[in-house]
Amino acid sequence: MTKFDLHIHSCYSNNIYSNRLLCPPSSSEPEEIIEVAIERGMGAIAVTDHDNIIGSLRTVEVASKKFKDRIIVVPGVEVSSRDGHILAYNVFDNIPKNLTAIETIKIIKQKGGVAVAAHPFNVKYSIKKHLIDKYRAEFFALEMGNSRSLKNEFTKSYIEKHQLSFTFGSDAHSLRDIGLCYGKTWENVNTVDALLESIRSGRVSPGRIYDKKLVKRVVPSALKTFFIWKWRQLKSFVDKDVFLPYEDTDFSWN
Questions:
Q1: Which in 114, 170, 202, 222 has the greatest CB count within 10 A?
Q2: What distance in Å separates the CA atoms of residue 44 and residue 90, rounded to the nearest whole number?
Q3: Nearest partner of 174 among 24, 72, 46, judged by Cα
Q4: Domain 3-247: CATH superfamily, name plus number
């Protein structure tokens, strides 16, 4: 059995609104994410920042160099399509945002990745039911459990009704939330391809689906992140060594 949380945000989720004066939705750095995930029993994770692949590739790099064979890191990104957020797994480049859902899915596939509807049917930033109905065969899977979604039960019923593949992710915007939602495979897997094949073939099951105390969890972590990054931004004016991840974009994948 391998536990997996395939929706985590890092400090590289910084430019979601194309305005650097706004704070990123997370202050978690790649090494911290891996350490907490391992502590909580995760055997596989995905860092899926908003429209920014750098944090995911950094996490893959850190896992390879410092945590060899201890955890699988699926490269990915959360794409802001015009119709809602779509998780792109096993990609190594950014996917253009503000396209339609079907255009986004096609590009993800062209790049060798798979597309998963993030927190489907939810109130905001989610693919709505009429589009899921229309394009469900194009999705690799739907995210059955998301700790920031209000529609987990409906999604579970929809997936069971249509016999679809499914994933799980905490949608963690802080270290505290990692593992709040996770799935587990029926067997141990040790590669990205093996994990995706387990999901595709339905050899996974819910580990934990936690969507309680949403406002109580989200608001404090958002405020904390806001003040952390505002302080770092202010310090960066006089101290050029302050780490601001949106300046860390020189990454080429070999």
A1: 170
A2: 13
A3: 24
A4: Metal-dependent hydrolases (3.20.20.140)
